[in-house]
Design goal:
Blueprint: E1 4-7, E2 10-13, H1 22-29, E3 48-51, E4 55-58, E5 71-73, H2 86-93, H3 103-118, H4 138-144, H5 155-170
Parallel strand pairs: 1-5
Antiparallel strand pairs: 1-2, 3-4, 3-5
């Protein structure tokens, strides 16, 4: 029995070469071209995907074999039943992209950020570390999304889309993670 990884809900075999990055598995072997290879050094965030629906990682820095038995969600796995994810729709409504190259990573990172908020994980700019919930200010969003770069400078639209959508998603806490 070969080792598998779940990608957007489908089990796929892991590559036989343990040196294959998760990004290369997605793009070159599975032909899921939404996740982008920007810098290939973990500096731009264009390759961000979700692990187990909540943890955001840079797929260019991850070996596919590290995620054996885990569930990976790329941008292709966000839409459901032919409808865009609410965050994808908000990016359109708030003009949160221009060229669109960074958008897949921005979307996955923002959803990972929402999961962090639900767990009560603070950021560098979180003002009240003892609060039950983190206030999602524009500064808080910008800090949490600082690992995702946009060459076009569509940051205002990105922040507005996240503020509108993630605020609603983060409003329902599911228990706090120890700090």
């Amino acid at each position: 029995m070969s080792a598998t990884i779940t990608i957007n809900g489908a089990a796929v075999p892991l590559p036989s070469d343990p040196r294959v990055s998760l990004l290369d598995l997605l793009r070159e072997q599975l032909h899921l071209s939404g996740t982008k290879k920007g810098c290939n050094q973990g500096a731009c965030g264009a390759c961000t995907v979700l692990v187990d629906g909540e943890q955001r990682i840079l797929s260019c820095l991850a070996l596919a074999v590290q995620y054996e038995g885990r569930a990976i969600t790329s941008v292709e796995g966000l839409a459901a039943d032919g409808a865009l994810h609410p965050l994808q729709q908000a990016f359109i409504e708030h003009d949160g992209f221009q060229c669109g190259y960074c958008t897949p990573g921005q979307l996955c990172s923002a959803l990972g950020m929402a999961a962090e908020l639900r767990r009560g994980v603070p950021s560098y700019v979180t003002e009240d570390l003892a609060a039950d919930a983190v206030a999602l200010s524009h500064d808080e969003i910008r800090e949490r999304m600082s690992g995702n770069l946009c060459r076009c400078g569509a940051y205002n639209g990105i922040v507005d889309a996240i503020a509108e959508t993630v605020t609603q998603a983060a409003a329902a806490p599911q228990g706090k993670e120890p700090r």
